[in-house]
Specification:
By secondary structure, the protein is mainly alpha-helical. The protein has two helices and two strands, in the order E-H-E-H. It has a two-stranded parallel ribbon with strand order 1-2. Helix 1 links the parallel strand 1 and strand 2.
């Protein structure tokens, strides 16, 4: 699967794909997590603020898929 942007919609799609067991996900996003993202982007938490979304999404993916996916 390819996800262009792991923001409001992309992060929800990524979580759904992870929980469905998709084995390979390619993500592209050049943004960082900001405080105003917390209300709609479930992939991140306040500890991720200021960090790259892609890095946080990869790190937080294990919570949704127990590391069975190559990202």
């Amino acid at each position: 699967a390819f996800i262009m942007g792991v923001g409001g919609l992309g992060s929800i799609v990524m979580i759904a794909l992870l929980r469905l067991g998709v084995k390979k996900i390619i993500i592209v996003d050049y943004d960082v997590v900001d405080n105003h993202n917390m209300n709609r982007q479930l992939m991140y938490s306040v500890k991720d603020i200021g960090k790259k979304k892609v890095d946080c999404a990869i790190k937080n993916a294990e919570f949704h898929n127990v590391g069975n996916t190559q990202i």
